[in-house]
Amino acid sequence: MTKRPQDVAAEIGTDLGALSHLAPELAATFATVASDIALVIDRDGVIRNVAVSGGKDAVPAPRDWVGRPWADTVTDDTRRKIEQLLLEANESGVSQRREVTVCGDAGQIPIAYAAVRLGEHGPVLAVGRDLRAIAAIQQRFIESQQEMERDYWKRRQAEARYRLLFQVATDAVLVVDATSLRVVEANRAAAEFFALAPGKLVGQEASLGFAPAARVAVDNLLVASATHDRPSEIRIRSGIDTLSVSSTPFRAEDTSLLLLRVRTADATETTDSSLARLAELVERTPDAIVVTDMLGRIRLVNPAFLELSGLPSSTDLAGRMLSEWLGQGPREFNETLDVVRRNGMVARIVSRLRGLAGSIDIEMSAARLPDEADDQDSLGFTLRPLARSSSAETAAFDELTRAVERLASRVGSVILPSLMREGAELVERHLLQTALARSGDDEAAAARLLGISEDSLMLRLRRQGLRLGGDRPSVMA
């Protein structure tokens, strides 16, 4: 516990007046043995003698201070402390230690002073310690602490970057009707997770793909999230993995929906090793991934996007609109954004990516990424090049060309309306086969590629004599 000056004076208990005539010698002795500077102050607060330890440059030459008020040797903001030192020394004989800022030849210097009065009518002896070395250590400590904080936040930013990109690439996302708890829409990651085509998931119970022991917990999660209209999350076991399953309620027009996200719990851990694994996955994934804000302004991209677009780096991408690189015009892109903001996701939109080396056909999916940390949701986009024509597609196209040529050879013998009907049938058949091949016999995806409904697709397939997963007849006329 810090002692009060009067308590210290009482403990000394000896009148120091006998030493008053030795004040200059005492100042020199203190400056040499126990401090950096010692001052002899008269009762008016004027400096009468200055002693500085050898080699110290804390103050100007003694003659520059002698005859000056002690308070004039410090900065204005610490003058009050000098007055308190003198007041305590004159009243009780000993002062507390106080830190002031001295105006010296080397600039402003921090000094800690303590004062003692030599007798009732004697001078005040003020002894000071240069605090620059301590201040330097404190400054180095602060700088080290700031550097640690900068490293920490850099790591957190890298973690946030890879976490967002990782979610876009791997999170299974389902849009679920809040009333029936059936799937309305699903992304590719969900299809892979549940081992079903995205079109096959639509209409199924949301908990169907989970282990039987976990279905009740998932159903309860969805019901609780819908009932209380707030996000909820649980962890469940699936084989050797622990899954993090979260449900976020939202509305699309007049319909209450739930955004169900499934990821491995390991993906949410915050460790150096998990961050390294995330970084490796995101850097090596072949899918082009882009994270934007809710208005479509780019926040993050992965190397696959740079490779696909031919851009050298992501330095100048932040803040620019993703639509600059898409074949969609601003209006169409804004419509896509509206769908994602309302419905939580949009899957497998056929578009084009404009790169430095030209344009390529892509399949684009997007999902909303809730961010509990700063309440600033993001949108995650995955861009996949559409498979180039396979040898089978090329052969089918060549066969179509030959069929059209044979059709053209009949000009003059068959009227034009009949030729046009036959030609339309040939082209429709070829396009249906191409869509089915590119979608892997997923009728929902094939219908989206063609821009028609699933019912219309099935009707056209039956009319053409085509069936899913079977041998498709030739386009020969």
Kindly estimate the percentage of residues that lie in beta strands according to DSSP. 15-25%
Question: What's the shape?
Answer: elongated
Helix count from the secondary structure assignment: 15
Distance between the termini: 104 Å
Strand order of the largest sheet: 2-1-5-4-3
Largest sheet: 5 strands, antiparallel
> Number of DSSP strands?
15
Rg over CA atoms, rounded to whole Å, is 40 Å
Oligomerization: single chain
Class by alpha and beta content: alpha+beta
Residues in helix, %: 40-55%
Catalogue the unreliable spans: 8-13, 267-271, 470-477
| Secondary-structure element order, N to C | HHEEHHEEEHEEHHHEEEHEEHHEEEHHHH
- Report mean pLDDT, rounded to a whole number: 76
What does this structure look like?
This protein is an alpha+beta fold and 477 residues long. The protein is built from 15 helices and 15 strands. It has a 5-stranded antiparallel sheet. A 5-stranded antiparallel sheet has the order 7-6-10-9-8. It has a 5-stranded antiparallel sheet with strand order 12-11-15-14-13. Helix 5 crosses helix 9, helix 12 runs antiparallel to helix 13 and helix 14 packs across helix 15. The protein is elongated and about 135 Å long. It starts with a helix and ends in a 13-residue tail after the last helix.
